Amino acid sequence: MARHLLLLAISATFGVSAHSFFNARFLIVILIFLCFLYYTAGLRVKSLSLHLVIMAIFLGAATLADHRNTTVYNGTESDFIITFTHQPNIDGNALKGFIESERGERLMLRYKIITEQEKENLIRLLQIGLSCRAEGDLQIPDKNRNENGFDYQRYLLRQGTHWIFKADSISFQECFVDGNSMVVSIRNLRMKGIAYVREHFPEESSGFVSALVFGDQTYIDASDLTNYQRLGLVHLLAISGLHVSFLTGLLFYLGIRIGITRERMTVAILIFLPVYMILTGASPSVVRSCLMAMLLFLLLLFKKRVSAGAAIGAVYMALLFFQPNMLYDIGFQLSFAVTFSIIMSSRIFSHYPQKTMQLFIISSICQLAALPILLFHFFEVSFLGVFLNVLYVPLYSIILLPFSLISLFIHLLLPSIGQPLILILNFTFILCNKAADAASSLPLSSISFGKPHFIMMIFLVITLLGLFLTWEESFEKSKIWCGIMIVLLLFQYNVQKLSPFGEVQMIDVGQGDSILIILPFNRGNYLIDTGGQITFPIETWAKKRKKFNTAEDIIIPLLKSKGIHQLDKLILTHADADHVGSAKELIDHFKVEEIVIGGGNEEHFRDLDFVSRAREKKMKTTVMKRGDQWVMGGARFSVLDPHEKEENKNDSSIVIYAEIGGLSWLLTGDMEEEGERELLATFPQLQGDILKVGHHGSKTSSSSSFLEQLKPRAALISVGKDNRYGHPHGDVIRNLEENGTRVFRTDEDGSIIYKFYKSKGTFRKTLP
Length: 768
Known about the structure:
Elements: H1 2-21, H2 24-40, H3 45-68, E1 79-84, E2 89-91, E3 94-100, E4 106-112, H4 116-125, E5 130-139, H5 152-157, E6 164-170, E7 176-177, H6 182-200, H7 203-214, H8 222-230, H9 241-257, H10 262-279, H11 284-301, H12 308-322, H13 330-344, H14 346-349, H15 355-378, E8 380-381, H16 384-413, H17 415-440, E9 447-448, H18 454-473, H19 479-493, E10 501-506, E11 515-518, E12 525-528, H20 550-561, E13 566-567, E14 569-571, H21 577-580, H22 583-589, E15 591-592, E16 594-598, H23 609-616, E17 620-624, E18 629-632, E19 635-641, E20 655-660, E21 663-667, H24 673-682, E22 690-692, H25 704-710, E23 714-717, H26 730-738, E24 742-745, H27 746-749, E25 752-757, E26 760-765
Parallel strand pairs: 4-6, 12-14, 13-15, 14-16, 16-17, 21-22, 22-23, 23-24
Antiparallel strand pairs: 1-3, 1-5, 2-3, 3-4, 5-6, 5-7, 8-9, 10-11, 10-25, 11-12, 18-19, 19-20, 20-21, 25-26
Helix pairs in contact: 1-3, 1-12, 6-7, 7-17, 8-17, 9-10, 10-11, 11-12, 12-13, 13-15, 15-16, 15-18, 16-17, 18-19, 20-22, 22-23
């Protein structure tokens, strides 16, 4: 039964997926699956018909859910009565979180806190179920503005949220609580619990205790969380089967020991689990674990038994039927994939009687099961995590999870006794985090493979299935599949070296510049500028826990998705913050062979923070000026400027003339009119097919005379959406259009990509 239910769960997955992705490739995959069922699983026509019916039913469920996912607003509304339905997040001077309007529609709230006193009042006042009058604007969420980036609009839509409500004012003095349901009471208890942990536990451990007890990772230090993610240990910080098994087992044992009958304890646990599910945030892993436990205890109450495989299959299908969009949640995918693999690998564990070896095998199976999902979403995996899980899983399950619960419980009852326990717990977390930080710098801590192609994903999944099925008999029989897996991963790791295609991409970094050049067969990966934000002094209370950084949040994930493992040149055109502001973070987290700056203007870079870091890492730094050039991979690069020391930073920009993919490119940094005139005087025959417009389309650049001589066929403008400077200037756009130049701009088009093969290529925009 369990085996057949799991196969039906796969058919249900196909049914839900068909609503969003049905095409010829998808149909081929379904046919392969049906052939597998017929020839390998031994199912006949009648059973195959059942699978087709299941696909149709779940396709209908997904279609119905999409049909109901509509908005009642048109975007012009400004007055609302909002109700806080989920725990709001106060981060620095920003308040955000899911709310519900008076018309019953879910919105994403964004509100800027004005004063420190207001922030303190909000921390004290806010609770689930609080309703307030608010004024503001409805905004459509952003789609992914860069290739392979996170699609925030799609993420919110799949949670039934169509609008971001940017509140200008919220009348907190007039707020009221209308009723107080059981769910609201439990959610408020969760808020109070998290606040209690924040107040009484040290900063180093409070975030981890909140994650382990209440399922809230908000307050974990960003660097610690990154380390756990890189090492494949972040699952330990999510409420899952480990926590549910520990708590239910503990409660059941204590109840029996004090004389409560098994039947009554079973009923008590069936009541406790839904409460616990809400108390810990109801994430996909929590829901999966609690529903599985409830199903098993319910059947136990009626003296029935069901295998864990059948239980997880039934829970999976039930969740997909009622909430089809859960399929696209990464936590949902990882939770079920890993749990499926563990449950179905019981025969594999029987080959290894030693407990330590079993733990290593479980860790290996979990990493393998998560491999395709991690590569698709995060483009990298940790092989070191297989070994670290052998250490960290027992550490968290036997020591840190119970110790966190006990310390919190005792501190609530007897603070004087609980405080020493908290200090011991804090010291343990510090040691664990330091070990994770040290491990994250090791070679195998995280390996980038790039985002796999659809065909590669199919091969990976088939290979994993073959590996698990043959491993059940013996490891010897699975060696061929292990070999195939290694070959596939080696191919994926080196896919860029094998690609005859090149690329020039203007990355959307907001109000700044960053251009990525990828030459065919990995002959050169160049990044021109890193973007960066101009920072202003801000009071301590208003600082966010994690500040947005262009390199960490945009550029590095993009490079990883492309399978790029190092930059051959990091070219920094000039020293303005919106061009070099993220250079330090880039060289901290990514291998850079050579940093290039402009000659005669070295003093502009002298006091920038990335310079000392580059020296520490002994990175090669090259100074280039007019006349320097290089040829690589069929592309030619010539430096036209700078030629002397410039007082104006913008006119000190490195200007590059490049011949790439059959087109000539003029990349001008922030060069202004005076620099343009000097350039035309020195190179009177200068022309270019593609112009990177100087200074984000400012009126001080791209003069009429410059455009008339250059005669560009297309112009690229890197500019922030709704920027405060009014870039690009209307005169610049008119000049370009009058010259018959096609304009691409990142504020409207997202990243702009030119992909080429030999001397031919095409442009495309990320935003439609």
